[in-house]
Recover the amino acids of this structure.
């Protein structure tokens, strides 16, 4: 990739960017230690501990604008009742999940809106870990206890299968933690691993009970609109909520900042009252840059959009003794 010499913001100080693919982050990190690479595009929690102590590298962490969620197929009979979906949300211990799955490098999620969106309302009630309330909601939804006829299986109130793609270790780790939490309220969630192609095919066809996945949450509301509006073709999980539709439509046509904020708040609130998924967490990632470069970017933000402003650090010339 070459710089645009007559760009409207001025010619970048970096003339050329060469992209290199590596089979694993640790392989790329080793190349950076040898001086072969100046910039690592993405450093996950697993590799961060190896890179942070390195003096020749500076790490820039930020909150990724993707939310991890266990999405319900709202067309399934056991997920048509919003109390059931609320119960499953109260059953999940999000802070513990962030600690174990992300090594503390992330934040709990309660909806599909990005917490760093300028219109995000942090005062909206959140789902806390409350197994007793989850059980009470299942009772209120008249979900009976299902007695098992098998010696090896545990009696459960609700059984469903969660679809996950093969070789996605983080997604599987989150699903297993959710499975453990749900079992405490008598809900049996089985995991089914399939190839990534089959995973996408079955989501498109709506052939699943629930699915563990990540979804774009920011920076705009356009992706949540496509995921959750009842009129969207991408909404293959069959989620329909008039309040959510109305809020999303009002966001699109809001003439003022105040009306946009009000509609955005209603969108958040509606998804808490009628959750289409167990929104679990947003993870931190980091980009790593050689100290040969001075990176000019706001703190706790993605540095990539500012690459045209990076500068090579001038090394003082050696003087003769």
């Amino acid at each position: 990739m070459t710089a645009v010499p007559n760009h409207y913001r001025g010619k970048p100080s970096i003339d050329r960017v060469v992209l290199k693919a590596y089979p694993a982050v640790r392989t790329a990190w080793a190349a950076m230690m040898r001086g072969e690479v100046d910039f690592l595009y993405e450093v996950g929690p697993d590799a961060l501990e190896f890179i942070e102590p390195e003096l020749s590298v500076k790490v820039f962490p930020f909150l990724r604008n993707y939310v991890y969620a266990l999405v319900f197929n709202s067309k399934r009979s056991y997920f048509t009742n919003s109390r059931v979906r609320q119960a499953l949300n109260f059953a999940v211990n999000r802070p513990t999940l962030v600690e174990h799955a992300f090594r503390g490098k992330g934040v709990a999620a309660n909806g599909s809106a990005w917490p760093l969106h300028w219109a995000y309302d942090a005062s909206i009630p959140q789902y806390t870990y409350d197994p007793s309330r989850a059980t009470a909601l299942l009772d209120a939804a008249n979900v009976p206890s299902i007695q098992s006829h098998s010696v090896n299986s545990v009696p459960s109130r609700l059984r469903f299968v969660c679809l996950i793609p093969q070789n996605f270790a983080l997604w599987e780790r989150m699903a297993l933690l959710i499975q453990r939490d749900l079992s405490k309220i008598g809900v049996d969630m089985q995991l089914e691993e399939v190839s990534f192609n089959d995973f996408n095919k079955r989501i498109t066809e709506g052939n699943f009970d629930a699915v563990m996945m990540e979804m774009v949450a920011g920076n705009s509301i356009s992706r949540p609109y496509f995921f959750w509006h009842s009129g969207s073709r991408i909404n293959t999980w069959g989620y329909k909520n008039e309040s959510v539709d109305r809020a999303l439509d009002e966001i699109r046509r809001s003439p003022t900042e105040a009306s946009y904020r009000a509609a955005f708040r209603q969108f958040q609130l509606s998804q808490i009252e009628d959750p289409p998924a167990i929104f679990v967490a947003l993870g931190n990632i980091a980009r790593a840059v050689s100290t040969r470069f001075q990176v000019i970017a706001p703190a706790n933000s993605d540095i990539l959009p500012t690459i045209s402003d990076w500068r090579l650090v001038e090394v003082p010339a050696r003087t003769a003794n």
